[in-house]
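Follow-up to my earlier ticket, as requested here are the two runs.
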Amino acid sequence: MSLESSLRENSYPGRGIVVGRSDDGKYAVCAYFIMGRSANSRNRVFVEVPEDNGIETLPFDVKKLEDPSLIIYHPVRVDGPTTIVTNGDQTDTIRNGLDKGFTFEQSLRSRTFEPDAPNFTPRISAVLNVHGGKYDYQMSIIKSEDGTEDRPIHCTYSYGNPLPGEGHFIHTYAHDGNPLPSFAGEPERVKISGDIDDFALVIWDSLNRDNRVSLFVRYIDIETGTAESRIINVNK
């Protein structure tokens, strides 16, 4: 499906992760975006963390920061040949688990969805493994089965030998609402095309202009492991 159409037809997918392979086959591709309806959620920017080769979310105006617990975190960290992308502090849970020899799935078993009733926002995560000219990735969503605190569902999806020009898209909410309905089904299979700037522009221009906040895109050379990134913030 068209990633552009999927985004344009949904005014509030919330936070989203796209992972796949560039259409020329050379790059592992990932993107992460955040949106916001409240002033607190919109008061954020993505900032690079060079020593970690990742990013963090920071308040744009510290004086306007309300509750930082679910909006300030490291969405992207790099652990050896693995790039970790998530919508919360489970980034660190995954990295710590991988360092202890756990799998991606095992690392997330201790986590549940976010404690933000009545939405119970899902935790979405992905890892990209690029090593020795080979590439695969996994994605995960942890959500409430029936909109309560008692029944978390852990779903993990593994993708080996990704095809050029294809990827998968997972986001926190099916659409806008009150409460917000969680994403349903498997990650959406989407097309990936263009270089890093083209791809970033397609995503950014397709996000709802009233709700978009920040976007991160990274292209990783599958042969060399070198990476190139882009960040776009509404707040400047």
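Run two:
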Amino acid sequence: MLKVGLTGGIGSGKTSVSDLFKNLGVPVIDTDIIAHELVNDNAEVLQEITNTFGQDILSPDGSLNRKKLARIVFQVKQSRQRLENILHPKIQHEVIAQLDALASAPTPPAYAIIVIPLLIEAHYHHLIDRILVVMSDEETRIKRVQQRDSRSVREIQSIINSQADDQKRQKIADDIIENNSSIKYLAAKVTKLHEKYMHLGTTNG
């Protein structure tokens, strides 16, 4: 089973791309979803985060206030590293478990997509065979995030600045999707890659 790591900066359109793969019947493992589930469903993880960053990051109902935590971790590099040290080993453990389950299924898929926004920063290379980078110009990315999250431009810019830049992503990419156009264009690109990955997964599997 071919393991394709899907990455890209905030607002580049990773979810749109992964949804298109999903619509083609491809299994998708999303590390952002795993992180959300860890914080929501695992009291020990939430307690560890609270112990590290303080009670201020909690909402009145005791759940994690993600926007407050984001403001802290994207402004101070050491804070981001502390959060990553808590979450990434647990996320990687879950990714491996889900990949093992897919590989041991009666009919394993030819390939799987693993969405890893921080693929470069968090060193996930050992889990994947191929890297697909979604790229989009910065102005478009900022507009998308504003519409989605109602964040300020300054806040979005600080997140962009905290992540690896597209030049670094291009250097490690096996495949690149430019996402500055229509969803129809994007779907055509995904379908073409789907055929390629099906062939690679079947040939190497």
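The only thing I checked on run two: The mean pLDDT is 90. Let me know what else you need.
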